[in-house]
Amino acid sequence: MNDKYMIQTDENIKRYISQFESFEKSLNGELQSPIHTIRRTAIEQFLKLGFPTTKDEEWRFTNITPLIRTEFIPSFENPICPVSEKQLEKICIKKIPGQRLVFIDGRYSSDLSVVNPQQPNIHIGSLAEAIKKLPDLVHQHILHNNDGEKNVFTALNSSFLQDGAFIMLPDGTTVKNPVYLLFVSTGENTPIISHPRNLIIAGDDCRVSIIEHYVGVGMNPYFTNTVTQIAAGKNSIIVHSKIQNESVKAFHIGSIYIKQDEASNVTSNSIMIGGEIVRNNIIALLAAERIKCTMNGLSLASSQQLIDNHTTIDHAKPHCSSHELFKAILGGRSKGVFNGKIYVRKDAQKTDAKQTNKTLLLSDMATINTKPQLEIFADDVKCTHGATTGFLDADAIFYLRSRGISEDIARDILTYAFANDIINRISVQPIREHLNHFIYTRLKQGRQLENM
Quick one: pLDDT at residue 116? Predict the structure, then answer.
């Protein structure tokens, strides 16, 4: 790394330190709260870690220099840009029943949200409100996640921890309809950075489906740096679906931390579509016996997008299973990264783990770097992993053309079928309909660009 780049990096770090000092001044009475102790520790860790470069093993295929060099304005320093109900209807997923929490540049909007009256001990709302009403509980769960010691962007998120979604369900709670979390970034006038923090706590024997959706309405670059923590109690069932469809000039770095208790069942669906540079981290700790963890992922990239998926499943106890399938469809000069790790600890006997990564290249200039990994320290396990990369099957295209289908439509059918394997695993029908329509539109636009 040359000295000029080092100076540039140091200046960017100093800028975030300066932003934190301004942030502290805006907190007033919160400076003595336990939550602010977390913030102070996190900013020190951020300063210690610094931004990663391609010389770091975990980032060697993801160059974030454009992100580092952009001078983002913190959303708390920027007036909230109004988003109308009409604008919201254009970008949200239609026909989702149940409650909707809307966040504009990381801040909760009560006017645009639809929240039902809360039953006793059930909390579905903003994290900012929870910090005021349940500071000890929030502190306990936020503090439990120590990944900020290793992940600079989690440390940065914790430094500016202020708002996001807060869902807490007592034992035996079943939420009938999905809880829809909609995060809208504006970026209308200046490049904005927001740090949403979502905390989802499900007690024993709970049932809930959560949709986490990120979209943008502005044309300027902006940066969404988000962290979601999920704690699944005994025998609970949680389905978490994250759809990231930011604008073409956006940067999105998100981390999902899952901790599962005995006999819990968590499904994570990740759909990565938008953004110029995207990093999606999912870390699951299977901390007790008879746990089931499922991860499904789909990336759809074109032009010069870069989408990086990093997953970790930590089998800490015996008699647990995990199943992971990540797919990518890459066109243009886009780049994809998949790094999947499965750890099986010494005491995690009778583990059943399967990991698969499949990539479909629509262009000779698209590239994928894939690295499935197994680290096994137990001897009575059943673990498999694998990765495949290739182009559309020429024989399948020929077969469809022999039935009177044009080559363009034949390619679309095969591409759509490849993606649909993941989409059909999502249980919420409005999400499937939304994604099906989007993929059809994206394929059509791609053909038009190629023919120009």
Answer: 86
Alpha carbon distance 22, 43 (integer Å): 13
Task: Please give the residue range of the domain that contains residue 85.
Answer: 3-288
Residue 190 DSSP class: S
Whole-model pTM over 0.90: yes
Quote the distance between the C-alpha of residue 374 and its chain's center: 23
Q: Looking up tokens 């016996």, which residue turns up?
A: 289
In this predicted model, what pLDDT tens digit does every residue of 123-165 receive, in sequence order? 999 999 999 999 889 999 888 765 656 899 999 999 999 999 9
Please name which of 338, 341, 309 lies closest in space to residue 322, comparing C-alpha atoms: 341
Sheet holding 321-330, edge to edge: 107-114, 100-104, 179-185, 207-216, 237-245, 265-272, 292-301, 321-330, 352-361, 382-390
The rounded distance, in Å, linking the Cα atoms of 228 and 224 is 13
Q: Mean of the per-residue pLDDT values for the chain?
A: 91
> Which pLDDT does position 144 carry in this prediction?
74
- Higher pLDDT: 90 or 309? It is 309
Cβ atoms of 127 and 163 within 8 Å: the answer is yes
Q: Which of 416-423's residues contact partners 24+ apart within 8 Å by CB, and which partners?
A: 416/440, 416/443, 418/327, 418/329, 418/358, 418/360, 419/298, 419/300, 419/327, 419/329, 421/325, 421/327, 422/269, 422/271, 422/296, 422/297, 422/298, 422/325, 422/327, 423/298
pLDDT of residue 26: 87
Strand ranges inside 217-366, DSSP E? 223-232, 237-245, 251-260, 265-272, 277-286, 292-301, 306-315, 321-330, 335-344, 352-361
Domain count for the chain, please give it: 2
Same domain, 255 and 108: yes
Residue 105 located in a structural domain: yes
Q: 157 with 282, same domain?
A: yes
Q: What is the pLDDT of residue 5?
A: 39
Q: What's the pLDDT band for 8 if we cut at 50, 70, 90?
A: very low
Q: Which residue, 288, 304, 330, sits at the end of a domain?
A: 288
Query: What would the two tokens of residue 65 be?
Result: 């220099």
Show which of 231, 259, 288 is a domain's final residue.
288
Q: Single out the residue of 138, 190, 146, 147 nearest to residue 165, CA to CA.
A: 138
* Cβ contact 340:371 at 8 Å: yes
Retrieve residue 267's tokens. 């499904």
**What pLDDT, in 10s, does the model give residues 349-397?**
999 999 999 999 999 999 999 999 999 999 999 999 999 999 999 999 9
pLDDT in the model for residue 441: 83
Contact 203, 174 (CB under 8 A): no
Judged by DSSP in three states, 232 sits in strand
